[in-house]
Amino acid sequence: EVSLVESGGGLVQAGGSLRLSCAASGFTSGGYAIGWFRRVPGVEREGLACVASSDGSTYYRDSVKGRFTISSDNAKNTVYLQINNLKPEDTAVYYCAADPNPCGGTWFQVGAYRYLEHWGQGTLVTVSS
Asked: Is the Cβ–Cβ distance between 22 and 6 less than 8 Å?
């Protein structure tokens, strides 16, 4: 059974940084894409970034390019999301997601979260001004 466990959320001041972690387990075959979404109250989950396990290719939502960095440590089966220069509008629950379909621009389309197979429980990031 696939399990995704996020950690690293918390309260941070605007301008600060956080690194979120997603510990993944239970994958029986390669080829999964793993990435990050976030949910602001009252707004649908939006895709932020994803990484392809096959070749490590990374993809980002346009609005987070330059501030968010996704990376993976295959030895630890962990995917990270580094967020720099945090803003109050980054306050959200951040979720790790995994899917056997390729990572790419489809992750960032409206409603994309509905089609992804595996989810973590989420970690709350609160950015104070």
From this structure: yes
